[in-house]
């Protein structure tokens, strides 16, 4: 597929993240309250204000959940109508008054998050982390090549790009110490992930193909992680407070329809998956991903570059597996892929891996080093799929680390 041209000239510019091929969904506020919007070029379109051809009630609330719940036929009809409105110059006079410059709006969380589940679906990431803690011979847990591993997170901690993130307090245990202590995390980290947004609820177990049809779109996702809190708490039940501080998502949902041209097949399987998890076709996506760190007052350093095609399990497989127990999935559920890392040192999607547990600090553009995040650091995730003369981008997913709050007196001896 090649570039679809729009009468919004900026949408046709080389390198534009939001051409007519994309049309991602978000929530914007131009000073009159939050509204549902579509990014096109350097503008955002107020969807409810144009002749979209659908029930106006779908656009009444400042979240895309009602549209998601309406199902794939409505998704397709809306996308087709918006493509005509923004592609055919005959509609320019009627539609142009409802475009606002992106630089003049505040972007909000694009959907109401019902539940959040985070997976562990990158083999390179799982191997790196396992090697650090268990040695290369026991890097992957015995179940990893057969099952999408995940944990239930906190929907309440999901925030939109641009939200500051406070360094967390938690229970820590220093090496060699007999007892733990309460303190601010010293090993605060990022995780470069892709998040799948569930559009349709489930009723019982669904197949991989059915799960794929339930997915509305995708966001960039940074699952902030306190590695020192995690190290002390994760046995026997897995991550808890180490992952509850914040999860940042990009402000635009890139629809599954926009990503169709970028589907790719699965990685090589060391052992066959059980029949219910086998893919009926390509389920991964060729999406280039990167993460940048900007220290306070400094210039950005790109820490890593990787690709979503590195995932061993697709979002559809994760969603399928999630339903096997009878767990009901809801409109607005968010599934994090887990850290996406490649097979080279410069493609690792977390500082835990990039610094190899803190033993090999990462050098920034200003000459300083990082083992883990420092106060004032701004992390930005980038993602885009490259087509023939066009790009389908997600917009930046960014957050700045604030210092930990003072310790309450009642927590001290």
> What are the segments in which pLDDT stays under 50 over at least 5 consecutive residues?
none
Strand content: 25-35%
What Rg is obtained from the alpha carbons, in whole angstroms? 21 Å
Tell me which CATH architecture of the largest domain applies here: Alpha-Beta Complex
What global shape is seen? globular
Structural class: alpha+beta
Main β-sheet: number of strands, strand sense, barrel status? 8 strands, mixed
Total number of β-strand segments? 27
- Given this structure, which CATH class of the largest domain is correct? Alpha Beta
Number of domains in the coordinates? 2
What is the end-to-end distance? 65 Å
Average per-residue pLDDT, rounded, comes to 97
Fourth-tier CATH superfamily name of the largest domain:
Fumarylacetoacetase-like, C-terminal domain
Number of continuous helical runs: 9
Helix content: 10-25%
CATH topology-level name of the largest domain: Fumarylacetoacetate hydrolase, domain 2
């Amino acid at each position: 597929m090649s570039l679809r041209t729009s009468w919004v000239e900026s949408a046709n510019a080389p390198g534009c993240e939001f051409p007519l091929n994309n049309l991602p969904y978000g929530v914007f506020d131009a000073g009159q309250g939050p509204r549902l919007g579509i990014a096109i070029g350097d503008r955002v379109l107020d969807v409810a204000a144009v002749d979209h051809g659908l029930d106006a009630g779908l656009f009444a609330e400042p979240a895309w959940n009602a549209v998601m719940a309406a199902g794939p036929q409505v998704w397709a009809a809306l996308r087709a109508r918006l493509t005509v409105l923004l592609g055919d110059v005959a509609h320019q006079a009627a539609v142009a008054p409802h475009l606002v410059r992106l630089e003049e709006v505040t972007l909000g969380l694009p959907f109401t998050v019902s539940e959040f589940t985070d997976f562990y679906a990158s083999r390179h990431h799982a191997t790196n982390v396992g090697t650090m803690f268990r040695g290369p011979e026991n890097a992957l847990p015995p179940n990893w090549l057969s099952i999408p591993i995940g944990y239930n997170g906190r929907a309440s901690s999901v925030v939109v790009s641009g939200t500051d993130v406070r360094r967390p307090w938690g229970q820590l245990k220093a090496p060699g110490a007999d007892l733990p202590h309460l303190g601010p995390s010293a090993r605060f980290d990022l995780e470069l992930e892709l998040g799948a947004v569930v559009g349709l609820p489930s009723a019982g177990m669904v197949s991989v193909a059915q799960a794929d049809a339930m997915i509305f779109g995708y966001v960039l996702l940074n699952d902030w992680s306190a590695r020192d809190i995690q190290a002390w708490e994760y046995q026997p039940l897995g991550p808890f407070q180490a992952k509850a501080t914040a999860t940042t998502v990009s402000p635009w949902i890139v629809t599954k329809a926009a990503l169709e041209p970028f589907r790719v097949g699965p990685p090589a399987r060391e052992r066959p998956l059980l029949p219910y998890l086998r893919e009926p076709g390509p389920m991964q996506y060729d999406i280039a991903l990167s993460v940048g760190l900007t220290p306070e007052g400094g210039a950005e350093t790109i820490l890593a570059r990787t690709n979503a095609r590195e995932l061993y399990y697709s979002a559809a497989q994760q969603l399928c597996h999630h339903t096997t127990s009878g767990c009901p999935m809801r409109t607005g559920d968010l599934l994090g892929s887990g850290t996406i890392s490649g097979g080279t040192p410069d493609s690792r999607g977390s500082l835990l891996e990039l610094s190899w547990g803190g033993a090999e600090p990462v050098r920034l553009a200003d000459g300083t080093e990082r083992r883990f995040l420092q106060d004032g650091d701004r992390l930005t995730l980038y993602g885009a799929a490259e087509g023939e003369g066009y790009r389908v981008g997600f917009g930046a997913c960014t957050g700045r680390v604030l210092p930990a709050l003072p310790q309450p007196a009642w927590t001290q001896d």
